[in-house]
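Translate structure to sequence.
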């Protein structure tokens, strides 16, 4: 799946203020490529990821196209189906459900849509892939940060995403856990999953075929 982003701009309008966060961002991501996104805190990295996933509206004239489908033209139900079928998300703070065991956390995204036993089987094989077969019954609070992130990766893979969107996935991890996560992501990328990867980590900025640096070009205006 190819992603094309053209003239992507995003302005937040809140409480009588206008904050232009993204200005004319352009890039293309071919199937199986890895794009690393860097930029200072507040430069709009998370905003960019949300726009790409269709979780935020974008300014007029912005184009975000997957193969031949532009997400700005999709209805909400189409967008949800698109995300469910094509995208996976990984966050810095894992975003696991503390009340559920690891296996169930991994199963959750597909549970409403497929047979429970099939989803369980898939969750187990993914937890095996991230080397956590012996943690199926653990709750998130019983895991290390690196282990939590590996559960989160397994969950992000439950729908076989074509694009994995990673928002500082190693930001909370020590060097060893970080390296394990990167190794896992590189393996997925080698197997054909496209990756968009946000990082502050200097050691990781050169990963992938492309690096996009967001500048702090924010213009903040008071609306008339
Ligand atoms: N929903 C919102 N409404 C208004 N302003 C917002 C909203 N979300 C983010 N912002 C502002 O947009 C700017 C960019 O935020 P964003 O979270 O995209 O930055 P970031 O580069 O991901 O930062 P960090 O590296 O700290 O995570 C910030 O100044 C933030 O305050």
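Result:
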């Amino acid at each position: 799946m190819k992603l094309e982003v053209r003239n992507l701009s995003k302005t937040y309008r809140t409480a009588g203020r206008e904050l232009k966060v993204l200005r004319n961002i352009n890039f293309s991501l071919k199937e199986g490529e890895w794009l690393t996104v860097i930029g200072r805190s507040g430069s709009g990295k998370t905003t960019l990821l949300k726009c790409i996933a269709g979780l935020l509206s974008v300014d007029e004239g912005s184009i975000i196209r997957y193969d031949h489908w532009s997400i700005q033209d999709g209805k909400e139900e189409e967008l949800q189906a698109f995300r469910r079928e094509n995208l996976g998300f990984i966050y810095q703070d894992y975003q696991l459900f503390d009340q559920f065991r690891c296996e169930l956390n991994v199963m959750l995204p597909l549970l409403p849509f497929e047979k429970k036993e099939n989803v369980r089987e898939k969750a187990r094989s993914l937890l095996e892939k991230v080397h956590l077969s012996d943690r199926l019954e653990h709750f998130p609070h019983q895991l290390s940060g690196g282990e939590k992130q590996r559960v989160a990766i397994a969950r992000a893979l439950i729908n076989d995403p074509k694009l994995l969107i990673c928002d500082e996935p190693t930001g909370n991890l020590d060097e060893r856990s970080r390296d394990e996560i990167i190794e896992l992501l590189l393996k997925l990328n080698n197997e054909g999953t496209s990756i968009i990867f946000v990082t502050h980590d200097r050691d990781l900025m050169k990963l992938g075929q492309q690096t996009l640096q967001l500048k702090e070009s924010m213009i903040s205006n008071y609306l008339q």
